[in-house]
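Q: I'm building a small set of examples for a reading group on sequence design. Run inverse folding on the following structure and report the sequence directly after it, with nothing in between.
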């Protein structure tokens, strides 16, 4: 287990954000469990520390750069060069951050769960259960994030996932082999079952979109079942979640990304001024907006990654609120002749506007993890898988009606391939810059006859336009720091 500690130490050296909680004064991870956790209040503080490890900006950044969501911006000085050009190796910073952040959260959750056994539950039994339940949910979520990004095939239970860690580390020099997807799924489901039995409404401060509750558990079960191709289960879970939510209308949708509306938000990672993620800076972590600009989401804010032309072109000229939420139209320079303009990099500037931040701290916004629209799209996938094509189209239409603000024509799918292709197209717009596109193409690209779809003009300055659906770069490499420190950690193919 020495790699977890080496990763945290490397975070300090390399300033990889998200690892700051590993060294905070009186951080539970720096003390023995008996000293750090002596009562329920200590457990509550430790729970907040576990949440603080959770961050998906690296997932957002990698997906945006390697797929067709973003492209080189006007003020790019080499940022994302390797990822844009499909040059992915074991030193990839995104892979390191995904691995380190999630195992940091797993480690903290394990310490909480173990320490809770020695604490008097009768002090506050409801709050005690609520805290421990959330620790199990965090462990389940983080293990699933590891599987999602480091497994070659979500539907193959024998494929390798990551390191399955369910207890605090006692031997930091132990070598630990990767477990299979099947072993991960079994543990994740067990953890979710325990979480569901413990999480309650005992404390108003630990309920809602920023803390893992029953809706979070059901939404995660829906996503995991969909990734596994277990669509009957996925549909049931998604329907259960949707009974508690409605889709945001256009005004609510726009406000959602200013952290001002939570109509369809199931779970978000809270980001506020002066929190532990604040001040981490460009692309470092925590700030999703800093994945795309140096200063702010304006023309003068240093846009180094912009909305891709391929994605912009399928939204341009519509009343779809996702266009005005995704790109700052007032500040962008939209060149209708970009195809023939040799200076298009300077003249055609599409400024990402999904994470503008606030006036006090630009580029710093909540990170959306589960939304009602994803659940609706999972139901569409389930219908397509069952060859219920009109039902799949109806689910997609619901989202379009909400985003356009008026009833839209229903899609028409002649077969399952068209249905899955149409659903992927809708997920491309609906979940833009939320870390889904790379995963979606990996799991559904072949079924929907879709792959990375870059604009020809963008391809001209990059190493290529697309990757085959089975390409090894649809799986992240196990970080070099891990395989160097842990001889038992088998590397993914072709890395």
């Amino acid at each position: 287990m020495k790699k977890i500690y080496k990763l945290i130490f490397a975070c300090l050296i390399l300033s990889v954000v998200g690892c700051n909680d590993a060294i905070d004064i009186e951080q539970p991870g720096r003390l023995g469990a008996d000293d750090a956790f002596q009562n329920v209040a200590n457990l509550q503080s430790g729970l907040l520390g576990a949440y603080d490890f959770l961050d998906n900006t690296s997932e957002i950044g990698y997906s945006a750069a390697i797929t067709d969501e973003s492209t080189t911006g006007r003020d790019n000085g080499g940022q994302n060069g390797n990822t844009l050009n499909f040059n992915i190796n074991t030193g990839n910073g995104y892979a390191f951050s995904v691995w380190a952040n999630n195992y940091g959260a797993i480690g903290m959750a394990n310490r909480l769960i173990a320490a809770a056994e020695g604490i008097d539950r009768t002090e506050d039994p409801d709050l005690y259960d609520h805290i421990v339940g959330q620790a199990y949910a965090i462990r389940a979520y983080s293990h699933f994030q590891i599987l999602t990004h480091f497994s070659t095939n979500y539907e193959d239970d024998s494929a390798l996932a990551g390191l399955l860690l369910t207890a605090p580390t006692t031997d930091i020099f132990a070598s630990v082999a990767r477990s299979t997807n099947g072993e991960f799924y079994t543990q994740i489901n067990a953890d979710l079952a325990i979480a569901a039995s413990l999480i309650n409404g005992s404390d108003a401060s630990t309920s809602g979109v920023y803390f893992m509750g029953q809706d979070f558990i059901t939404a995660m079960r829906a996503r995991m079942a969909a990734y596994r191709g277990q669509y009957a289960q996925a549909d049931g879970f998604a329907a259960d979640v949707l009974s508690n939510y409605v889709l945001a209308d256009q005004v609510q949708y726009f406000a959602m990304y200013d952290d001002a509306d939570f109509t369809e938000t199931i779970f978000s990672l809270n980001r506020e001024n002066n929190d532990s993620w604040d001040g981490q800076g460009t692309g470092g972590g925590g700030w999703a907006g800093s994945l795309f600009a140096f200063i702010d989401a304006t023309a003068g804010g240093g846009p180094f990654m912009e909305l891709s032309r391929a994605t912009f072109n399928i939204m341009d000229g519509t009343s779809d609120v996702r266009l005005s939420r995704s790109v700052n139209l007032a500040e962008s320079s939209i060149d209708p002749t970009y195809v023939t303009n040799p200076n298009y990099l300077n003249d055609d500037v599409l400024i990402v506007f999904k994470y503008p931040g606030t006036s006090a701290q630009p580029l710093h916004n909540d990170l959306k993890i589960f939304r009602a629209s994803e659940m609706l799209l999972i139901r569409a996938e389930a219908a397509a898988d069952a060859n219920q094509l009109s039902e799949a189209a109806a689910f997609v239409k619901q989202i379009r009606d909400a985003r356009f603000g008026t009833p839209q024509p229903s899609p028409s799918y002649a077969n399952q391939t068209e249905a899955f292709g149409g659903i992927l197209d809708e997920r491309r717009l609906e979940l833009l810059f939320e870390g889904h596109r790379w995963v979606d193409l990996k799991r559904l690209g072949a079924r929907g006859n879709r792959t990375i779809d870059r604009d020809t003009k963008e391809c001209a300055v990059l190493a290529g336009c697309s990757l085959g659906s089975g390409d090894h770069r649809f799986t992240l490499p196990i970080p070099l720091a891990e395989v160097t420190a842990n001889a038992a950690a088998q590397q993914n193919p072709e890395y």
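The two ends are 22 Å apart (CA to CA).
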